[in-house]
Design a protein that fits this description.
globular; mainly alpha; about 65% helix; two-stranded antiparallel sheet; about 10% strand
């Protein structure tokens, strides 16, 4: 089993700025030189704890659309992130809040929105869990 893999983000300039804002916030909070993949993992962990209705509302928000764009960025992290993505997508479908499937890059963008809206204690908890998985 592969322990790591690469994940593709589809971002606008605003999306890149949002990702970097998340990354810098987490790095400052932890006082660690963290990987970009860790930032994505923490963001998706935060999203995993959100109610499906809240996720769908953000998927439909103008900000989610504004974060997406023509720039593809690749980050590496544990292959377990795919399990989180699958779990979130399944919960959305099962909830009936979301008709068909959701593009993964859109889930990443919502995760960035939720990341910046999260309290420090939530981020610290998600970071500790991610650090246990990625080490």
């Amino acid at each position: 089993m592969r322990t790591s893999r690469t994940y593709k983000l589809q971002l606008s300039e605003k999306g890149v700025d949002q990702f970097l804002a998340c990354h810098c916030r987490l790095a400052r909070m932890t006082r660690e030189f963290i990987s970009y993949g860790t930032t994505l993992h923490v963001a998706m962990s935060i999203l995993d704890g959100c109610d499906p209705a809240e996720i769908v509302a953000e998927l439909e928000s103008p900000l989610c659309g504004a974060l997406g764009g023509p720039s593809f960025r690749f980050v590496g992290t544990t292959s377990r992130l795919a399990n989180i993505v699958d779990r979130i997508a399944s919960r959305l479908i099962e909830s009936g809040e979301c008709g068909g499937g959701v593009a993964t890059w859109r889930l990443y963008n919502v995760a960035l929105i939720m990341f910046l809206a999260s309290e420090d204690r939530e981020l610290q908890s998600a970071y500790r869990k991610a650090a246990l998985i990625t080490t």
